[in-house]
Amino acid sequence: MYTDEDNNSDMIGAFCKLLFPWKGHSNGIIVDDYGTEWLVQLTNGKEVPVYKDEVFIV
Fold first, then answer.
1. CA triplet 28, 19, 45: central angle to 5 degrees?
2. Exposed site from 15, 38, 40, 52, fewest CB < 10 Å?
3. In angstroms, rounded to a whole number, what is the distance separating the alpha carbons of residues 21 and 7?
4. Tell me, what's the pLDDT at 52?
């Protein structure tokens, strides 16, 4: 999960897993940083914004 010590720009491109799956998909890659949210591209190609505390970095 996201902590304040993490550098936001270093997280872009990181593999992640959503705490709450989106339509059955939970694995993806962080593609953008919106401040309190990340834009995650899921393995099915859909991009969804999620709060940083709802993502596990793997």
1. 25
2. 15
3. 25
4. 93
User: In the numeric block, which tokens belong to residue 54?
Assistant: 């709802």
Task: Give the C-alpha separation, 35 to 10, whole Å.
Answer: 13
Helices (H), 4-49: 8-11
**Pick from 43, 7, 52: which is nearest to 24 by CA?**
43
Place of tokens 């989106």: 22
- Can you give the length of the chain in residues? 58
What pLDDT shows up at residue 36? 92
Task: Please indicate, yes or no, whether the overall pTM of this predicted structure exceeds 0.85.
Answer: no
Give the pLDDT confidence of 7-55 residue by residue, as tens digits.
556 899 999 999 999 999 999 999 999 999 999 999 999 999 999 999 9
Q: Provide CB contacts within 8 A for 10, sequence distance 6+.
A: none
